[in-house]
Amino acid sequence: MTVAFYIAAAVSIVATFMVITRVNAIHALLYFVVSLLAAALILLLLGAPFAAAMEVIIYAGAIMVLFVFVVMILSAGPREALQERQWLRVSTWIGPAILTAVLLGELLYVMAGATGALTTPAQVTPAQVGASLLGPYLLGVELVSMLLLVGLIGAFHLAYRLGKGEASEEAGGKR
Amino acid sequence: MISQVPFEHGMIFAGVLFFLGLAGVLARRDAVFILLSLEIMLNAAGLAFVVAGARFAAPDGQVMFLFVLGVAAAEVSLGLALVLWLYHWQRNVDIDNARSLRG
């Protein structure tokens, strides 16, 4: 099934290229979902079923839904797409494109001279991942939980002030 | 159904995705697209960890992928809250308008 890896990699790279070149945010999000599903297939082929499931559930599910909500709240319409098209001129993207292409070329050059090692055909089961998470990586799990708590409190703080600002604006309008 | 691919090809795949995300961050001005490109970069980093884990049949790669996932979730929740904040005060999501951090 080696050819499946290359097909999925090509799909993922093409879809990601479409993500960074679209002017409509919803189109970009849908292309990114395709890219993530192809990446999940690659994870499955590499013998990481748990990571593949997390890729679909959390990335393609939760995080993309969050993006869709925000794009819907911002109500991106034809006007925004027009503005985005004006921003996305050749003079804007040619510099970053050349610089990143040079860096990518260097990466390819380095990788071309590496050993011909293959990935192992063995599957790393979710049970092994769980045992490793709650064994040697217990401190990392605690740190990630604290990071998520900080993210929760920060998002709540921003949304609370946003809601209060809107409420006072409405009150000012009534007055 | 597990495929055996050269280790370098998996790393090159992750690297191409990472550089596409980097080009997106540098070239776009819309804050939503910049956050989306950051997600591409974080996802590529996680993929590189899993490829390296598959090289040695070790669970460490997937553990690191989960940590990257946690970082991405925290980053996207705060980032999108800041985008809404920016839109609320500036009425657009041009990142060039976000020059003053005062509320």
Would you kindly provide a brief summary of this structure?
By secondary structure, chain A is mainly alpha-helical.
Task: Describe how the helices and strands are arranged.
The complex is a heterodimer of chains A (about 180) and B (about 100).
Chain A: H1 2-21, H2 25-45, H3 49-74, H4 78-87, H5 90-112, H6 126-133, H7 138-174
Helix pairs in contact in A: 1-2, 2-3
Chain B: H1 7-27, H2 31-55, H3 60-90
Helix pairs in contact in B: 1-2, 2-3
Overview of this protein structure:
The complex is a heterodimer of chains A (175) and B (103). Chain A contains seven helices and no strands. Chain A has 175 residues and is mostly helical. The longest helix of chain A is centred in the C-terminal third of the chain and has 37 residues, at 138-174. By secondary structure, chain B is mostly helical. Helices cover 75% and strands 0% of the residues of chain B. Chain B has helices at residues 7-27, 31-55, 60-90. The longest helix of chain B is centred in the last third of the chain and has 31 residues, at 60-90. The radius of gyration of chain B is 17 Å and the shape is elongated. The termini of chain B are far apart. Chains A and B meet through helix 1, helix 2, helix 3, helix 4 and helix 5 of A and helix 1, helix 2 and helix 3 of B.
